[in-house]
Design brief:
Number of strands of chain A: 0
Radius of gyration of chain A: 22 Å
Order of helices and strands of chain C: HHHHEEHHHHHHHH
Strand content of chain A: under 5%
Distance between the termini of chain A: 13 Å
Shape of chain A: elongated
Order of helices and strands of chain A: HHHHHHHHHHHH
Chains: A mainly alpha (268), B alpha+beta (543), C mainly alpha (307)
Largest interface: A-C, 62 and 71 residues
Largest sheet of chain C: 2 strands, antiparallel
Number of strands of chain C: 2
Radius of gyration of chain C: 24 Å
Strand content of chain C: under 5%
Oligomer: heterotrimer
Number of helices of chain C: 12
Shape of chain C: flat
Helix content of chain A: 55-70%
Structural class of chain A: mainly alpha
Helix content of chain C: over 70%
Strand order of the largest sheet of chain C: 1-2
Largest sheet of chain A: none
């Protein structure tokens, strides 16, 4: 598996470098519309063809990767940390704290948060820049996406808090935050990694779906979500394989994240 | 011998004749509704799905032939408009029955009008008849006639009855007893409706055979257009009434015979600026938006040809004004779409003190010209149009922010809070008569989008439009009405309260299994002659 | 060192805990009821505060007279006071009336009764598929310790997570597969990823290594040593996936036009139909609480100490 991890790291670095150097590499601005060439096929001039408005798809993939590769993992990290904090403390404390927090978590899972997202968008000025709008969207997704994982982490933390090594740590004088941070949290990593790894693509797709409600990235700024929305007209893209490149890139990046993060091998 | 030959020929003819009868009767027509009907009450039908059910099941006194655009007899064999457009008298057909067998009479028309005009019902169809305050009187006359008198004249009165489905006063089934070609047989909420052939439908074909030919109609609730298209190509449904341009092109590449482009529809896409004085916009922006030069400049800076070519794949044309060229009588043919001319746009802006500075347009006070346009999220054509306008306006140094909002949020901004700068939406026109646009053009009306519900007209040109619209509504003389409404179109063209962008074409897709289809621009484009449609492939299966 | 896992004394203790659990049920039911009511109120609050509340697409109908428009706005305004709305709602609820849906113009009870079975079928099928595929694959990977299987499955799971639901729905239609199975593909990645990690961690614990060293077969190690250790977390995952499946059903039913409560919720959200949304929120809250509480209660019987 080491070779797979190495390949994944190299791939992620290459993608990151490409999107950071988008200003240099991209053959055109992500917003420029080549109106004589809408829906053009892949060519030397347009490596991945052009979209419905004649914008160079390769340039949009580069700039879109910048937005999504930065913000989606950040939002996933936020939701994972919140899940770890809330679930970890609840499971570790046990008793009425756990019951109260978990009831709150269940309530949180059930509420229609869509309306909060719509309300926040309405509170923003209409002329807010697209990047601020997408930052706020991902921040909100991060703040709203913790509840499911918190439950599992709580159960995990509860089980771990009764384990022998924790008993030993307590007996050695470790307590409170130190006990939580140095002994419990490292053992929650498998669940946290799972949560993080699942959240990245879920948030990217959620951002795309929120576009149906006017949330997410505003034109002309591209994101993976907006690029993937092109695939919704799936039946019209048959025979235009280059339109699948953003999806393939997305899958490869997410898979690479998994390979890089999963340091734990299967036990032999 | 001759007798034998004649008998033989007769036998052949009878066989062929009966074959053609068999070939035209029976089967189930299958198509999709984009949403679930909100109501099956024909008087309250306002959404597309409910109006489809009303069209297929409702019997009307007169029917607008969607092909010829002329008015034809329906449940009434003849009608007469008198009293300066206040009174209409119908001669009803004799011996008709509702789908449940209840007999039809003038009492049913009276009952329907009473229900329709009931102020507590708030029926949009009924409101179209409300020319002024006062009671609507319906009188049953001898020899199966009925007279309806309105408190004030209504221009185009007779055509309005195309939307009024007559209900039974006596039937225990209430609105489910119908006079149209079909009745609602089965309704699985959220999934499908099946309409069954009305055995008592009054219409017959030229050979005296009872209509409709098709035995039943199945309407699946299908929102996803991609899946709808897939189902059509698979033969699971028979047609798509309104097809998106990209699917149209795909269909043309697969099977051109299925794709139908009836030409420019009555609908238009337009953009307007918020001119409400009390809106929470900064005063310098209000000054921009209320300037005719500014609006004309924006209009000239937008490339409508590109929009029609790219967004609608050539299946649209630059719009001229509130009336589409498809509306042959009412369209003012002297007007042309505003040309794309950014140089002229900058000259107009310069007249109002705007100037370019480092590629950015500034007003005379030094404010950089930047504003937002809101449109409804999820409508990819409007999103693309807004993005194209964004690029076009950057050519004159204007920064446009495209903001897509979910529909209720958008409606709140344009009708309640007026917290928006520009809006891009479409106008859906079902009516040819400009009277249907009365509440859009009257400055006191709520649908006067750029500045609704004015106590007095805010501008001279709006006062002029008010005068002209009232004048055309108060006369029956079509020539005078046309003159007045032409002037309204000229003023709209000059002042650009709405910047009309494109008129989309009426695109549809029909399976070759459906016979006698003639797609048109008026809704419903494909099944307007539902009682005369027939299926070929279905019959083979039914045998 | 004695092997960890379920021994006879452990089973007796589990039975005693089970009896204690049953006696706590009425208290739990009470807590669930209160939480559901709070959930309904909070859901109503979110809807009420969202922009677009009280407006209707019908207002754009140019045919409507001023009076009709006013009447339309007044009917919406009756729901605007949150406390009045909610107290009226609770009063009606006591009489078995869930109110009327403004967008579909039918009693909410009727709508829910028609559509809930469809969603329950989809959720049940989706969970069955997701759990059987996800859990079994995780078990197979952990027990076989085959890195290539782990890699391939992770890539498949990654691909499924990355595919937009609209594309998945279309692929199902293309393959003429029942749309209900789509939910299984949506929950499968989550179940697989968590299960795989939890089982992998459990299988690396000292007592498991000892059991293997002592020559116990794979099945015995799995059933008696790995699963009991991971059971509380897996049960928590089960509870979470039930509520996740319900919320995932909303976009899925909207995309595939399945007539379940998910489709209803989508329409209600677009129309700001507070009566319908409050009821649907309460149903989802109830399902979430019952599923998670059940998994907690069952999980308590499996608590074991880790070495």
């Amino acid at each position: 598996m080491k070779w797979a991890r190495t390949t994944a790291i190299v791939f992620l670095l290459a993608v990151s470098a490409a999107c950071l150097l988008a200003n240099v590499i991209a053959p055109a601005s992500y917003a420029h519309q080549f109106r004589a060439e809408p829906n053009a096929s892949a060519s030397r001039q347009h490596l991945l063809g052009t979209d419905d408005l004649g914008r160079d798809r390769f340039s949009r993939v580069l700039y879109g990767t910048r937005v999504s590769l930065l913000l989606a993992p950040a939002a996933a990290l936020l939701s994972s940390l919140m899940a770890a904090f809330i679930g970890g403390i609840a499971g570790f404390a046990g008793g009425w704290v756990e019951r109260f927090v978990m009831a709150g978590t269940d309530l949180f899972l059930s509420l229609p948060w869509l309306f909060l997202l719509i309300t926040v968008r309405a509170l923003l000025p209409l002329n807010v820049s697209p990047i601020v709008s997408v930052l706020i969207t991902f921040a909100m997704l991060g703040c709203l996406g913790w509840a499911g994982a918190a439950r599992i982490i709580c159960a995990d933390a509860r089980a771990l808090s009764q384990s022998d090594f924790i008993l030993l740590a307590r007996a050695s004088g470790s307590c409170g935050f130190r006990l939580l941070w140095r002994h419990l949290v490292p053992n929650l990593k498998p669940v946290l990694y799972a949560q993080f790894w699942i959240s990245v693509p879920v948030f990217i797709l959620t951002e795309a779906n929120l576009g149906i409600l006017g949330l997410g990235v505003a034109e002309p700024l591209p994101s993976w979500g907006s690029l993937l929305r092109e695939l919704e007209g799936f039946s019209t893209i048959a025979g235009q394989a280059w339109q699948l490149v953003p999806l393939i890139l997305f899958i490869l990046v997410v898979s690479s994240f998994h390979l890089v993060l999963t340091k734990e091998e299967l036990p032999v | 011998m001759k007798k034998l030959l004649a008998s033989f020929v007769l036998l052949i003819l009878i066989t062929l004749g009966s074959t053609s009868v068999l070939a035209q009767s029976g089967g189930e027509l299958h198509f999709c509704l984009r949403s679930e009907p909100k109501t099956l009450n024909p008087l309250l039908a306002a959404d597309d799905a409910s109006e489809t059910i009303r069209y297929l099941t409702g019997g009307v006194l007169v029917r607008v032939n969607r092909f010829t655009q002329d008015l034809e007899p329906g449940l009434a064999t003849s009608w007469k408009v008198t009293n300066g457009g206040k009174t209409i008298t119908f001669q009803l057909r004799d011996g008709l029955r509702f789908s449940d067998g209840t007999s039809f009479s003038a009492d049913d028309v009276t009952y329907t009008m009473q229900q329709l005009m009931d102020p507590a019902l708030h029926s949009p169809t009924g409101d179209a008849f409300r020319s002024s305050e006062g009671k609507v009187e319906t009188q049953v006359l001898p020899k199966n006639r009925v007279r309806i008198t309105f408190p004030a004249p209504i221009a185009g009165l007779d055509r309005l009855f195309d939307q009024v489905a007559v209900m039974s006063a006596k039937s225990p089934q209430k609105e489910m007893a119908v006079l149209g070609p079909y009745y609602v047989g089965e309704n699985k909420a959220g999934s499908y409706l099946i309409l069954k052939r009305n055995p008592n439908y009054w219409e017959k074909d030229s050979a005296g055979r009872p209509l409709p030919y098709i035995e039943s109609v199945r309407l699946d609730i299908q929102q996803n257009r991609d899946i709808e298209m897939l189902r059509l190509t698979r033969g699971e449904i028979h047609f798509i009434n309104s097809l998106d341009a990209e699917y149209f092109d795909k269909l043309v590449s697969q099977d051109p015979s299925m794709a139908h482009d009836a030409g420019a529809s009555l609908d238009s896409e337009e953009m307007w600026f918020n001119q409400v004085a009390s809106s929470p916009l900064p005063s310098y922006k209000k000054a921009w938006f209320s300037s005719t030069n500014f609006r004309r400049a924006i209009s000239e800076a937008i490339n409508r040809e590109d929009m029609a070519r790219i967004v609608f794949r050539g299946h649209a044309r630059p719009a001229v004004g509130p009336v589409s060229p498809a509306n042959k009588f009412w369209f003012n043919a002297k007007l042309q779409a505003h040309p794309f001319d950014q140089k002229s746009a900058l000259q107009r802006l310069a007249q109002d003190g705007f100037h370019l500075q480092d590629g950015v347009l500034h007003d005379h006070d030094g404010h950089a010209v930047e504003f937002s346009v809101i449109t409804n999220a999820g409508n990819k054509y409007r999103e693309r149009m807004a993005t194209m306008i964004q690029q076009d306006l950057s050519g004159v140094g204007i920064k446009l922010n495209v903001v897509t909002l979910d529909f209720p949020s958008l409606i709140e901004r344009i009708t309640r809070t007026f917290d928006y700068e520009a809006c891009l939406l479409g106008l859906v026109n079902d009516e040819l008569d400009p009277n249907a646009q009365m509440t859009v053009w009257l400055s006191s009306a709520d649908s006067h989008q750029w500045n609704p519900s004015q106590k007095t007209p805010a501008t001279v040109w709006e006062a002029e439009i008010d005068k002209l619209m009232r004048a055309q509504a108060s006369t029956l003389d079509p020539k005078k009405r046309k003159e007045d409404f032409d002037k309204v179109q000229e003023i709209a063209w000059q002042q650009e309260p709405f910047i009309y962008l494109v008129n989309k074409n009426a695109l549809s897709a029909v399976s070759p299994a459906v016979r006698n289809v003639h797609p048109v621009v008026l809704r419903p484009q494909v099944y307007w002659n539902i009682d005369q449609l027939s299926l070929s492939g279905e019959v083979a299966r039914n045998r | 060192m004695a092997p960890k896992g379920l021994t006879r004394p452990a089973i007796w203790n589990a039975s005693r805990r089970g009896i204690d659990t049953l006696s706590a049920l009425p208290k739990l039911a009470g807590k669930i009821l209160i939480t559901v009511l709070i959930g309904g109120f909070l859901g109503a609050t979110l809807v009420r505060l969202a922009p677009g509340f009280g407006v209707d697409e019908e207002e754009l109908d140019a045919r409507l007279s001023v009076r009709s428009l006013q009447a339309l706005r007044e009917t919406r305004a009756s729901d605007s006071n949150l406390f009045v709305f909610y107290s009226r709602y609770l009063n009606r609820l006591l009489h078995g009336d869930l109110g009327n849906s403004r967008t579909l113009q039918r009693p909410v009870l009727q709508l829910v009764a028609e559509r809930l079975p469809e969603t329950l079928k989809s959720v049940a099928l989706g969970l069955a598929l997701g759990w059987s595929a996800g859990f079994l694959l995780a078990v197979a990977i952990v027990m076989s310790r085959a890195w290539y299987l782990d890699l391939l499955t992770s890539l498949l799971v990654g691909a499924l997570l990355c595919l937009p639901a609209a594309v998945l729905a279309l692929l199902f239609v293309l393959a003429q597969a029942p749309a209900r199975l789509l939910l299984g593909l949506v929950v499968f990645p989550k179940i697989f990823r968590y299960s795989r990690n939890l089982l992998a961690r459990s299988s690396g614990l000292p007592h498991v290594l000892t059991a293997r060293a002592k020559g116990l077969g794979n099945m015995r190690v799995l059933v008696w040593h790995i699963l009991p250790t991971a059971a509380p977390q897996l049960l928590a995952l089960l509870g979470v996936t039930v509520s996740f499946a319900f919320t995932a059903a909303i976009p899925m039913e909207a995309l595939c036009d399945l007539p379940g409560i998910g489709q209803l919720a989508w329409k209600a959200a677009l129309g700001r139909d507070v009566a319908l949304l409050v009821n649907l929120t309460m149903i989802v809250t109830l399902v979430t609480l019952v599923a998670n509480s059940a998994s907690d209660l069952i999980g308590r019987t499996f608590r074991t100490r880790e070495a």
